[in-house]
Amino acid sequence: FVGAQSLVLTKSMDLEKGGNGQHCHFKQGESLPFEPQGILGRGASGQVDKVLSQISFKEYARKRLLRSAATVSNHPELRTFFGCLAAALEFLHGQRVRHKDIKPKNILVHRGNILFTDFGLSLDFTDADSSTTISMVNGMTPKYCAPEVAQYEPRNTMSDIWSLGVVFMEMAVVLKGKTIEFMTDFFREHGSQQ
């Protein structure tokens, strides 16, 4: 009974109930009743693998984020990502799609290809006159969202470009041998200097 408690007294049960696609975060060493089935891809911030639940026997995609700071020596391919991501975003906008949630966690590297993922918040504006929306924001990541998104003002494809710019800034920080934490601390200490 005591051994089986780890299968019951865990946040993984919330995953089994269906969290409407919400992410669930687990601390290092926390019990996870998932059996790895193989790697699906790697991204700048971690790895995605296919896992099998030992509770429901359903398959899931598990994203594991790196806790260590990224360095240039760990990610020499990072330099090539700038153009690839810009071209991918240009393609999306050309297809009249606004991603609306660009951030490192939604960028995946798979077999040498860099991909935008998680289109749950995206907007297909094929049948609209423009990409501009004024409706309530249904989700955002404050660190990566454009000012107009954070202030609930009209927004369009330029908001995606802002978000990609923040990702580019983080990539540049890593290429300079610094950590994202260093950048965050720098901005916290120095502010916008306006």
From TrEMBL:
Keyword Metal-binding: no
A GO molecular-function descriptor: MAP kinase kinase activity
Keyword Transferase: yes
Catalyzed reactions per annotation: L-threonyl-[protein] + ATP = O-phospho-L-threonyl-[protein] + ADP + H(+); L-tyrosyl-[protein] + ATP = O-phospho-L-tyrosyl-[protein] + ADP + H(+); L-seryl-[protein] + ATP = O-phospho-L-seryl-[protein] + ADP + H(+)
EC number: 2.7.12.2
Keyword annotations from UniProtKB, A to Z: ATP-binding, Kinase, Nucleotide-binding, Transferase
Matching SMART domains: S_TKc
Domain Protein kinase: 1-194
Family (UniProt): Belongs to the protein kinase superfamily. STE Ser/Thr protein kinase family. MAP kinase kinase subfamily.
Protein name, as recorded: mitogen-activated protein kinase kinase
Annotated source species: Corynespora cassiicola Philippines
